[in-house]
Amino acid sequence: GDYSLEQFSDALRRGVRADGRQLYPAMPYTAYAKMTDEDIEALYAYFMHGIEPANDAPPETELPFPFNLRFSMKAWNLLFLDSDPFEPDPERSEQWNRGAYLVQGATHCGTCHTPRNALMAEKSSQALAGGSLGTWYAPDITDDPETGIGGWSRRELVDYLRTGHAGNGATAAGPMLEAIDLSFSRMPEEDVEAIAVYLLPEVESAAPAQPAPVERDAQTNIGQLIDDDTPAALGDITPGERVYRDQCAACHAPGGQGLNGLPALAGHPVLDKPNADNVAMAILVGVWPEHRQGMLGFADELGDQQIADVTNHLMSEFGHSDVRIDTARVAELRAGDPHA
Ligand code: HEC
Ligand code: HEC
Asked: Is residue 252 classed as helix, strand or coil in its secondary structure?
């Protein structure tokens, strides 16, 4: 409440608090460093006049050596803080530059989506190529068609960032859903479109893509599932399929094609990632969208083995992926170990 504009700007763009101490880069000042003076002034005006004061002392930060020494952040900043303001690229359109400014600055996509080195600095050579947040995995969002989102249309990306759902079957969970519900869904549509132009420069802004074709078997319904539940049929099923039938099929349908507006899992983009962490995390903690039906987590219902089994069932049957998770990893995710 008593910060001057200059102190506020130093905290946001240089990582220095009003008392001169260093902030840790968990506060994304390395991204905010790209923001213009005008935007910082606008934020300052909003914080000073638009937000009710609250007397709330956050808990002491506990970090391992050497990060517990705040002055070590000065050396870190010398190495890793690029405090040059954003430079528009004159070869590119105004819309592309607006998207670049937003992605690199205020929306700080790289804070989560760029892998970090041993000193927790973003690897600039691998910008947006995917990184683990400890439990959740923020996937590759470069325009690489294989590992990234090069196969998405701009419309799909805009819909995903505004609602957490896209026509290709993607649904957002975890920290991404939080970023969408609390932030990206509230941005003006032009800004989200500019982000899509910047991230997908080569992709045509073609007509809205149709939802990914999902094999629909008109015969498959809950009735059929029960018919199949004869001892003979049960003898063949894997433990993962067993859990799926018992716990998941009522909402996601026996064949994974979704039911009554609840999402399909067959062909879901979360299943084509280099690890299965997000699938297991969604099962453990659930999915909590602000304006739609969500999914309760199964941490209390299912053990590590069952979660690994059902995750691997989804990966192989609905994702046609070779990626698997083991129970040790599920146990780490359950414990929420930030260094896992
Ligand atoms: C707080 C961390 C965080 C931030 C900030 C963040 N993301 Fe994400 N993002 C994630 C996580 C975690 C996932 C995986 C979510 C899931 O499995 O449902 C994800 C998923 C995505 C996906 C889906 C990719 C796929 O292949 O399924 C897209 C696209 C995406 N993010 C774009 C962005 C963009 C663009 C920004 C900046 C405007 C951004 N994200 C900022 C954490 C973040
Ligand atoms: C009560 C209905 C319900 C049940 C039961 C249910 N789900 Fe879900 N699930 C949902 C809904 C709703 C969403 C997505 C919400 C949204 O974004 O619209 C979802 C999303 C998901 C996602 C996507 C997560 C991501 O990262 O984007 C996965 C994977 C998933 N469910 C797997 C499962 C598995 C496995 C089970 C059984 C162990 C299960 N679900 C049981 C309703 C359910």
From this structure: helix
**What number does the ligand 1 atom closest to the CA of 175 have?**
1
C-alpha closest to that of 305 among 284, 285, 281, 331? 331
Report the distance separating Cα 319 and Cα 331, nearest Å: 23
Quick one: which atom of ligand 1 is closest to the CA of 133? 12
pTM of the entire structure?
Answer: 0.89
Domain boundaries, given as residue ranges, for the chain: 5-80, 94-111+133-199, 222-335
Are the beta carbons of 164 and 157 closer than 8 angstroms?
no
Q: d(Cα 64, Cα 70) in Å, to the nearest integer?
A: 11
Tokens of 220: 């498959």
* β-bridge partners, 132: 137
Instruction: Indicate which residue's Cα is closest to atom 39 of ligand 2.
Output: 248
Give the contacts of 204 (CB within 8 A, at least 6 positions apart). 153, 154
Tokens of 294: 């969500």
- Give residue-wise pLDDT tens across range 87-127: 999 999 999 999 999 999 999 999 999 998 888 888 888 99
Does 3.40.367.20 match the CATH number of domain 222-335? Answer: no
Residue 128 CB–ligand 1 contact under 6 Å: no
Please report, as a single letter, which amino acid is at residue 212. Answer: A
Bridge-partner residues for 116, per DSSP?
A: 122
Q: How far is the CA of 228 from the centre of ligand 1 (A)?
A: 38
